[in-house]
Amino acid sequence: MTIALLLIDVQQAFDNPSWGPRNNPEAESNIARLLEAFRTSGRPVIHVKHDSLEPNSTLRAEAPGNALKPEATPLAGEPLYAKHTNSAFIGTDLEANLRGQGIEGLVIAGFITNHCVSTTARMAGNLGFRATVVSDACATFDFKDGDGSVIPAATMHRVGLAELRSEFAAIQTTDQALASLS
Which DSSP letter does residue 9 get? Predict the structure, then answer.
């Protein structure tokens, strides 16, 4: 099976303090490890970034935070898809390009675990791709529930991955994902 690394929204905006507390400070270093392994093995690497249409978003196309983090800068020939929704498949030709290249599996990492990573993984599974989400190469932030209580980032991350497990995606650590490449 041909697999590709799909990096979701590894953008500088997520360093902005306005996002609040986050889990997994090692996400970027694990993303860099995955990226190096995929590049070294000659496997496809695909980048996605969020170009928010919200006027105050740190992810607006013209905002400094829209830039990709250095750990995830595309090389020549690595496609970069810009999206305006929480799925890399909506409003892009990602699905057609994956099918055209014979890609059947996606190793997914990036930001935010319970938003764009989750939505993209769910859609990948629904579209018939074998999705694997790399748990320690994703991160999220504290969220407030309906009554204003804070749900810690670590809990949001854990629940987000639990919701994906089995039905939508396999969940692996970076070490597990790297081992499966050999």
Answer: -
* Rounded Cα distance, 23 and 32, in Å: 17
C-alpha span between 24 and 6 (Å, rounded):
19
- Token readout for 128 is 């018939």
Read off the pTM. Answer: 0.97
Residue 160: its H or E element: helix 153-164
What confidence tens digit (pLDDT) does each residue in 7-49 have? 999 999 999 999 999 999 999 999 999 999 999 999 999 999 9
Domains and CATH numbers, the chain: 2-181 (3.40.50.850)
Q: What DSSP character marks residue 169?
A: B
Helix (H) or strand (E) holding 178, with range, is helix 174-181
- H-run or E-run covering 56: none
Cα–Cα distance, 123 to 128 (Å, whole number) = 9
Q: What is the pLDDT of residues 68-84, one digit of tens each?
A: 999 999 999 999 999 99
